[in-house]
Specification:
It is built from ten helices and 13 strands. It is an alpha+beta fold.
Length: 372
């Protein structure tokens, strides 16, 4: 409606003031504005209306024929140019829509949606790609129920763009396969390491936290150069799970010779665990201050992980002024109290109660924080 309102405003001013040539050239702004919002046919319609009104008003105001012809010629030229611009814009929008559709399909294939309940946990996930139009990036996450308990990974690939997406797909593919096959969580990490050693360049690596819940009350964590998880106790206190024996990021073990170690934590009813990427903690405001994730989590923690992450994401967006400059992922899980209903795993449109897992020979891996 904006182009028509503008044309109507020019006509009203002309009728009220009778200034003739002073206002008639402004009618050319109608089709120019239409090029921003309308298709070519809409631009031509606005241009035709503006030309007709210009001729009527010119005759009414006694504008000389030569000057009126010049105005109509300029208006016709602007209308044609605006229609061409509208056609090009419309074509680019269709291409962008197709690209977004492909990106969304790739994201769903790479980062499969996680149900609200997995095994004994309530779960929520938030993901934001720095390349807003692409909607996918180098951060990765996965959480799967296995015969050895629920296992999860959150990681960050060095670099951005399609190479980072390819590496993230490789890590997630190996993790999902190894999580089902390997009873020992350290063996899961070792398989990811071997795969990356064969496929990554010398300067590429992936920071990650791999965790497992093999039995009630026992959480196993392996931190490979990644930001430490945050453990929220039922009382509401937030504790950083710093690695006791730091290990290098995945893909760099051959350079350092260090191997990851298993860190075991108690996870009681009502406790929560937040895994995240550095796109969250390194987000800066206009004063270059980092976002304080632990303090934000303590402010917004609730018994509903989805509500907690929604509040955190809103606060993070406010902190950075509306747009993140790096990929950011948040995965929050909560162990409900014994009185809560037993959660189920939703898969393939059905609901399956997850049985108690067998006792693995070893589980849980923590790849230490990168010291570089």
């Amino acid at each position: 409606m904006l182009p028509f309102l503008f044309v109507a405003a020019v006509v009203f001013v002309d009728l009220a003031g009778g200034a003739g040539m002073i206002w008639l050239p402004l009618l050319a702004a109608g089709p120019a504005l239409a090029a921003i919002t309308s298709r070519p046919c809409g631009v031509l319609g606005v241009g035709f209306l503006a030309a007709a009104l210009s001729a009527v008003l010119g005759i009414r105001d006694g504008v000389p024929g030569g000057e009126l012809t010049a105005v109509l010629s300029a208006l016709s030229a602007v209308t044609l140019a605006s229609a061409l611009a509208s056609a090009l814009r419309w074509r680019r929008e269709r291409v962008l829509a197709a690209v977004r559709s492909v990106a969304e399909a790739a994201q769903h294939a790479l980062l499969a949606p996680i149900p609200a309940n997995v095994g004994p946990f309530q779960v929520a996930v938030r993901y934001s790609a720095a390349a807003a139009e692409a909607r996918i990036g180098g951060d990765l996450y996965a959480l799967v129920p296995t015969p050895y308990g629920v296992r999860m990974i959150v990681g960050d690939v060095r670099g951005k763009g399609l190479p980072a997406v390819g590496t993230a797909a490789l890590v997630l593919g190996v993790f999902r396969e190894a999580a089902y096959d390997e009873p020992d969580l350290l063996a899961v990490v070792a398989r990811i390491e071997r795969s990356l050693a064969r496929n990554l360049g010398h300067d590429d690596f992936v920071t990650a936290v791999v965790a497992g819940y093999p039995e009630p009350g026992r959480l196993e964590v392996v931190n490979c150069g990644h930001a430490p998880p945050l453990h929220v106790r039922a009382s509401g206190s937030v504790v950083s799970v710093d690695p006791v024996d730091p290990a290098p990021p995945l893909g760099l073990r051959a350079l350092t010779g260090e191997t990851p170690s298993l860190q075991v934590l108690p996870l009681a009813d009502g406790d929560q665990l937040l895994l995240y990427t550095d796109g969250v903690t390194e987000a800066r405001d206009h004063g270059r201050e980092f976002y304080a994730l632990a303090e934000g989590l303590a402010r917004h923690v609730s018994d509903e992980p989805a509500s907690t992450l929604a509040a955190l994401e809103a606060e993070l967006q406010d902190h950075v002024g509306g747009r993140l400059h790096d990929d950011a992922a948040l995965l929050l899980l909560r162990k409900p109290a014994a009185a809560d209903p037993s959660p189920v795993v939703v898969a393939g449109g059905g609901s399956v109660v997850v049985p108690s897992p067998p006792q693995p020979s070893a589980a849980g891996v923590s790849c230490g924080r990168d010291r570089g």
